[in-house]
Design a protein that fits this description.
12 helices; globular
Length: about 260
């Protein structure tokens, strides 16, 4: 199968998106995590493209997607969802299934809560539903220390296989070094959001946490899912299954989408 078609798409809010699309069939959108770069989905997208039209992108102000200052000002999960809806409009995608982990999962849940008519269903993994006091230390660091700390945290603390994280490649890691600063300055302890049971039940939700992640880290996912009648399952990974177990994640997404109502 040929690789993804890469395009730049400008939306009415001034964001110029780096988009990668491949496959045919029902639409599935892969939303990057706090790393902001869609390179992490390369293997997952390639597998899923056998059954679906896959669209992924770099996040606003991250990697190859540029955003005006207004695009990152007062950022929230709802604002991210609105930005993604603007991209869907430009791509003529009326309705899709969405996958996201971490802040990508926040955006996916916000899409389901705020724009349910555009959502077939969402698949989310380890969603930060509340601010993390430990993250305040990151925000107090200078940019160089942010990059150094995030390099270690993303590759080792939140990823069970540092070699697979490094295998994203030098070009990707050069972009990530810049993204870490954007993430800390504009996303961390800013976009987190709790969702009501009503919001979590507007559209189907398939929810997981990692079996290799310390249980307490995302236990609130289990609590909120349970309250909404959503069974939270396990993936054999930590925070980034798209990097460490892409084939497992692709099959998980495929099975979830096939169960969503059309």
């Amino acid at each position: 199968m040929a690789g993804p078609v890469v395009t730049r798409v400008k939306t009415e809010d001034g964001i110029e998106w780096h988009c990668e699309r491949q496959g045919s069939g029902p639409h599935v959108i892969l939303i990057p995590s706090g790393s902001g770069d869609c390179q992490s989905f390369a293997k997952v997208a390639r597998v899923l493209a056998n059954a679906f039209t896959i669209t992924t992108f770099d996040m606003p102000g991250m990697s190859r997607t540029t955003a005006p200052e207004s695009g990152l000002h007062d950022l929230s999960a709802s604002k991210l969802a609105e930005q993604i809806v603007g991209l869907l409009d430009q791509l003529s995608i009326d309705k899709a299934a969405f996958y996201g982990c971490s802040s990508g999962g926040l955006a996916a849940l916000a899409l389901a809560a705020d724009h349910p008519s555009r959502v077939q269903g969402v698949i989310v993994h380890e969603v930060p539903l509340a601010q993390n006091e430990k993250m305040h230390r990151l925000k107090a660091m200078d940019d160089a220390d942010v990059v150094e700390t995030c390099r270690y945290t993303f590759s080792t603390v939140m990823c069970e296989d540092p070699e697979k994280w490094r295998a994203l490649g030098p070009a990707c890691h050069q972009r990530l070094d810049k993204n870490y600063v954007t993430w800390v300055r504009h996303y961390v302890n800013v976009i987190e959001r709790a969702f009501t049971t009503e919001e979590l039940t507007k559209r189907p939700v398939c929810w997981t946490i990692g079996s290799l992640t310390p249980a307490g880290a995302f236990f609130q996912n289990v609590v909120d899912g349970y309250r909404a009648g959503i069974a939270v399952g396990l993936l054999p990974s930590k925070h980034y299954p798209q990097v460490t177990v892409p084939d497992v994640l692709a099959e998980h997404i495929k099975m979830a989408v096939e169960k969503f109502p059309t």
